[in-house]
Amino acid sequence: MATATATPAETEAPKKKGPNKLVLILVAVIVLMGGGGAAYFLVLAPKPAPSAEEVAEAKKAEEAALLGKVKALDPISINLAEGHFLKIGIALQQSSAVAEDVDGSKALDEVIELYSGKSIEELSTSEGRDAAKAELVEKVKEAYDDEVLDVYLTQYVMQ
To answer: What is the value of pTM for the model shown?
Structure first.
């Protein structure tokens, strides 16, 4: 029997001519997953709820766009309990939608209604003054139907 000898070209395995298809598929999948993840986090992910500070800042910015003139009213004197009196001056922060100055008589009526007969002890603490002012702002806003946005105390003297 004759043995055939193989030439070196026949015994060598064929050389690869490019990357394996499996490697290319894996690379493509990884790239697509990374791009999809980035798209999710940058565009599609739900935004976190705004913090209380962010909400307050947004509200202030919105109100600043709505602010109009400030109308200062002449101070008035109000009888308090036990023979004391309060001299109070206020200014009304008007909305930008108001073309003319608002009539301050409704606001002064609310001031008289709210402060008359209160005790000096009740109004002399910062908590008491702040609570009365908050109530005044609420009543004045109601009385002016979005024409007045805030009330500022310009004078506050008790005797």
So the answer is: 0.60
